[in-house]
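Figure 6 in text form: structure in, sequence out.
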């Protein structure tokens, strides 16, 4: 595991001491969450690029397909 140092103002550091928190874990989780959100954004952009050329289905297409399936069965 690599070390990442974070500088905070002295008053913030004092306030951190008053809160029972594992700050290393808290910051690590915040970083992981932020990375996860960015990865999701990138994936959605890629998905949009892939699906953009396809036309949107007409309204009622899903209901029509379900009715047809029920009628067959």
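Output sequence:
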């Amino acid at each position: 595991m690599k070390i990442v140092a974070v500088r905070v103002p002295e008053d913030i550091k004092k306030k951190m001491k008053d809160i029972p928190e594992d700050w290393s874990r808290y910051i690590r989780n915040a970083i992981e969450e932020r990375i996860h959100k960015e990865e999701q954004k990138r994936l959605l952009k890629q998905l949009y690029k892939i699906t953009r050329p396809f036309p949107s289905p007409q309204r009622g297409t899903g209901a029509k397909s379900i009715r047809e399936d029920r009628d067959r069965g």
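Caption detail: The first helix runs from residue 10 to 17.
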